[in-house]
Automatic annotation (TrEMBL), chain A:
Enzymatic reactions: S-ubiquitinyl-[E1 ubiquitin-activating enzyme]-L-cysteine + [E2 ubiquitin-conjugating enzyme]-L-cysteine = [E1 ubiquitin-activating enzyme]-L-cysteine + S-ubiquitinyl-[E2 ubiquitin-conjugating enzyme]-L-cysteine
GO molecular function: ATP binding; ubiquitin conjugating enzyme activity
All copies of domain UBC core, residue ranges: 5-165
Protein name (Swiss-Prot/TrEMBL): Ubiquitin-conjugating enzyme E2 2
Taxonomic classification: Eukaryota, Fungi, Dikarya, Ascomycota, Pezizomycotina
Enzyme Commission (EC) number: 2.3.2.23
GO biological process: ERAD pathway
Alphabetic keyword roster: ATP-binding, Nucleotide-binding, Thioester bond, Transferase, Ubl conjugation pathway
Family of the protein in this entry: Belongs to the ubiquitin-conjugating enzyme family.
Pfam families attached to this UniProt entry: UQ_con (PF00179)
Hydrolase is among the record's keywords: no
Automatic annotation (TrEMBL), chain B:
UniProt-recorded name of the protein: Coupling of ubiquitin conjugation to ER degradation protein 1
CDD domains documented for this protein: CUE_Cue1p_like
Regions crossing the membrane: 12-29
Family: Belongs to the CUE1 family.
Compositional bias segments (type: Low complexity): 102-113
CUE domain mapped to chain residues: 44-87
């Protein structure tokens, strides 16, 4: 029962995202046989070192979506303070209101059923442009971003080129 | 009146009997035959056992497995109990689970290196190398002009939808690749 609500909602979100896609975002189920596993492509925001890059990510939805948020994991290399080494994205919109591992997030920023996949992807896109220094998931990247910005940007740009097969 | 009460109590009696049977069975199984494959769903995950054993080398694996089985396999709950009480309850002597071989260097050596996958590039990942050389479908106006590109994105046919999504993904990657190559050419041109 609950999971059919979830699939209906996900299908609707898929339809809306496809008919009216936000700039630089393509997202949908890997296969419609499993509507709970999506793959998204996010374009690196202009004016940032991520510019020109395409970042694939996987979204896994819980059976009780939208009560609980999906998890999101970048499938390629993303050197960013808020992305773990294994690609897992750590931002407030992906945290359920109940769990606040860092005790800094406002309830309004966190996941709630009125959020959507589209809002998650847009938040992640702006996270690429503006890292949140308060809760680094990748401490090395956060340190480099804070102290050696030039090196950080160079490393990100190299990653973008590598990911598109231009070396 | 009493007849009705009689009929009502039979299902509940049956239910009680079934419940008792299950309970007895449950205790019987966990005590005597933990090694049988039938209890596999209840046996602790060896990875979890290993994880806790690494954190608390002073705790025996038998105690860890016992605790994990009783709390439904929650690593967090077992960890919490060890931290708050300094140890775990001793399992009954009859509890003799198959204890995983303690830290063979092989398993420990490979597991930390596994979560570091080699990143493959997008062209390989989406199998686009054959499409790289082919010219862009609509050279410049198609990329910049969104109105034209928004021809059809949604279809009511499942397979068609899948194909459309696939094409949008591929176009997004190929466009990015072309733009990067273009930038590269300009950069090299300026350098020369």
């Amino acid at each position: 029962m609950a999971s059919s609500t979830a699939s209906r909602r996900l299908f609707l979100e898929y339809k809306n995202l496809t008919s009216n896609p936000p700039d630089g975002i393509t997202a949908g189920p890997v296969s419609e046989d499993d509507i709970f596993l999506w793959e998204a492509l996010i374009q690196g925001p202009d004016g940032t070192p991520f510019e020109g890059g395409i970042f694939p990510a996987e979204l896994k939805f819980p059976k009780d979506y939208p009560l609980n948020p999906p998890t999101m994991r970048f499938l390629g290399e993303v050197w960013h303070p808020n992305v773990y080494a294994n690609g897992l994205v750590c931002i407030s919109i992906l945290h359920a209101p109940g769990d606040d591992p860092h005790h800094y997030e406002k309830a309004s920023e966190r996941w709630s059923p009125i959020q959507s996949v589209e809002k998650i992807l847009i938040s992640v896109m702006s996270m690429l442009a503006e890292p949140n220094d308060e809760s680094p998931a990748n401490i090395e990247a956060a340190k480099m971003w804070r102290e050696r910005r030039g090196e950080f940007e160079r490393k990100v740009r190299e990653g973008v080129r590598r990911s598109l097969g231009v070396s | 009146m009493s007849d009705q009460q009689q009929t009502l109590s039979i299902p509940s009696l049956l239910l009680l009997a079934a419940f008792t049977a299950i309970t007895i069975r449950y205790f019987f199984f966990t005590n005597s035959s933990t090694t049988t494959p039938r209890t596999n769903s209840r046996t602790a995950n060896p990875a979890h056992v290993e994880q806790i054993a690494t954190m608390f080398p002073q705790i025996g694996r038998r105690e860890i497995i016992w605790d994990l089985q009783r709390n439904g396999g929650s690593v967090a709950a077992t960890t919490e109990r060890i931290l708050s009480r300094g140890g775990l309850d001793a399992p009954p002597p009859s509890f003799q689970p198959p204890i995983p071989t303690p830290t063979t260097t092989g398993t420990v050596g490979t597991s930390p290196s596994q979560p570091k996958p080699e990143h493959i590039d997008l062209i390989t990942r989406y199998n686009l190398s054959s499409k790289l050389s082919s010219p862009p479908s609509t050279p410049l106006e198609g990329i910049g002009n969104q109105g034209a590109a928004q021809a059809q994105t949604w279809s009511n046919n499942k397979n068609e939808r899948q194909a459309l999504l696939q094409r949008r993904r591929e176009e997004m990657i190929l466009n990015a690749r072309r733009k990067l190559e273009e930038k590269e050419r300009q950069r090299l041109g300026q350098g020369a």
